[in-house]
Amino acid sequence: QANDACKCNGWKNPNPPTAPRMDLQQPVANLSEPCRSCGHALADHVSHLENVSEEEINRLLGMVVDVENLFMSVHKEEDTDTKQVYFYLFKLLRKCILQMSQPVVEGSLGSPPFEKPNIEQGVLNFVQYKFSHLPPKERQTMYELSKMFLLCLNYWKLETPSQFRQRSQNDDVATYKVNYTRWLCYCHVPQSCDSLPRYETTHVFGRSLLKSIFTVTRRQLLEKFRVEKDKLVPEKRTLILTHFPKFLSMLEEEIYGENSPIWEADFTVPATEGGQLVSRPAAVSTVAVPTAPLFSKKLNNSSSSANMDSSTPEPLPGNAGEKRKLPESLTLEDAKRIRVMGDIPMELVNEVMLTITDPAAMLGPETSLLSANAARDETARLEERRGIIEFHVIGNSLSQKSNKKILMWLVGLQNVFSHQLPRMPKEYITRLVFDPKHKTLALIKDGRVIGGICFRMFPTQGFTEIVFCAVTSNEQVKVKQGERLVGFSKDIKVPKSRYLGYIKDYEGATLMECELNPRIPYTELSHIIKKQKEIIKKLIERKQAQIRKVYPGLTCFKEGVRQIPIESVPGIRESCSVPAQKGKELKDPDQLYNTLKNLLAQIKTHPSAWPFMEPVKKSEAPDYYEIIRFPIDLKTMTERLKNRYYVTKKLFIADLQRIITNCREYNPPDSDYCKCANTLEKFFYFKLKEGGLIDK
Fold this sequence. Notes:
Blueprint: H1 42-45, H2 54-76, H3 80-99, H4 119-131, H5 136-155, H6 161-167, H7 170-188, H8 201-204, H9 207-227, H10 234-256, E1 279-281, E2 284-285, E3 290-298, H11 332-337, H12 346-355, H13 359-363, H14 376-385, E4 389-394, H15 404-420, H16 426-433, E5 439-445, E6 448-458, E7 463-471, H17 496-499, E8 510-515, H18 525-547, H19 572-575, H20 589-604, H21 624-627, H22 634-642, H23 649-666, H24 672-690
Parallel strand pairs: 2-7
Antiparallel strand pairs: 1-3, 2-8, 3-8, 4-5, 5-6, 6-7
Helix pairs in contact: 2-3, 3-7, 4-5, 5-10, 9-10, 15-16, 20-22, 23-24
GO molecular function, one term: histone H3 acetyltransferase activity
Region (Disordered): 298-327
InterPro entries: Bromodomain (IPR001487), Bromodomain-like_sf (IPR036427), Bromodomain_CS (IPR018359), GCN5 (IPR037800), PCAF_N (IPR009464)
């Protein structure tokens, strides 16, 4: 300014001149002209802004608008406590304009988040805790209600401390006043003042605030919906007026209950289904890599994008994702020795492998990498072995100073994902790539990033979500349409309660899953398959040598014989099995017992057998035994087998089929349980045919 004594407010004029007519063309102001308020040259008022960027000027102008709005709010507000907060924020922004600084709320309020777990996490825990046993459709309804409640809470106007004081005890008022002030500064006012950092109410507050406001908020919410019910579509009207009140009543018990587990920091829902997920990097995604199963959302884009979740790798607690235990009657050695009927003895396999003198025959010719029949992963494997490409799992860190090379790679990954996934906002990609909770498997060539998989692991839930998966255009292998998501399936085996509320939900995306077996070395898969093909080729050659054996001809017809049994033809028994015995009842009780025991063991170790391992608990499905008149499960079948109940194969097959029938009768057709039943039914009928217990 011209001198320190100048008190001109710049944009505020206590004696504004007569407003000019808007339809007349106004001359452009010159910085040498005098200020209409104080008479000093206009240039003196903006001299400190000469070297300030346009972006910063726009930020300061935005703060000016917010100051004006706060000034109006201070004069309109009648509540004393609220007025004081408005006035404090008004002075804070005005100070920041003069100092060209960022607004920071100072004092004893602290900084967000104020409680853990927050309201959102508590409500999602409540949904899992109370409704995880429901069929998928009903469970999804409860989840939708929880999202609606959280959304309302984020935009709900809280009662003032004076209103709270009228209905509460004095010792609660001080705590509520602090939370109310925090809510104004960090949640409510920033909704209209962009200059202030904004937080969602359900993200920064927890049980303490919810206990203070729930009773009043619940009453106001239900009243609002009743008044506006005619404006709601019929489906929403039924959902809100019928299910929402009951949902809030059950939530109220958990909010005010002393021993509610949903507010515990390490809350987990016991996984009654068993751990059928694979390992962490096999994921959920918009391409997924879980350590157990992988989920994936298939986007309508030329590149695969995925969601995975990963924090520091840690053991999966509880039975969410832990290795399935073998039945008590089946030891680990027994499991290893379980053999499917028709399996080739290991002794024969080892003998055949000794006859393969050329190791290259197993691995395939690595020199013909451009061959149309070359395995797709051979080029990459050879380049990695030669040091041309490298794989690194990297991520940002808040606790340790990041390596410069790591940061450069993260920036490179952000560029690759942004270019290959144009539908994804760049800000969103940047936030997730640099988020410490996310890790990225980076593909490096000649020191620069050419691709990667960004993922996040959920150890407590037993899966990993792939967020992004992309490779630069010039490095992509040209494959046929539909081959991009090899290994992923739309048939989701993981219970929805385990991933609902955890993975990112994209509109127009298709959720897919990929389950990895920890015993399979996937990076050597093409080698393994080639080795198996070579072994099978040698076995076929051996079998053909036996078949080509010349047996003496039949002379009995010359002697007047009109008909002989087919198995009496020389060489028939040696070359094939006689099908006449298929489907016949096994008369030897011990032979029947051993056959059924072997079959039942294979069924119990099938990945889709987990819902049927034990009898249904009445606490989990109160009406189950009213609907299902003849319950049966694999544990009961095991006991019946031990007691020699199955004197015929028909009894055994009837119990197996009863398991499937009961499941379909009680559960919706699209439920996870029915999906498992369908898969298991196909498996055991295949085994029954393979074992000759039923006709093919």
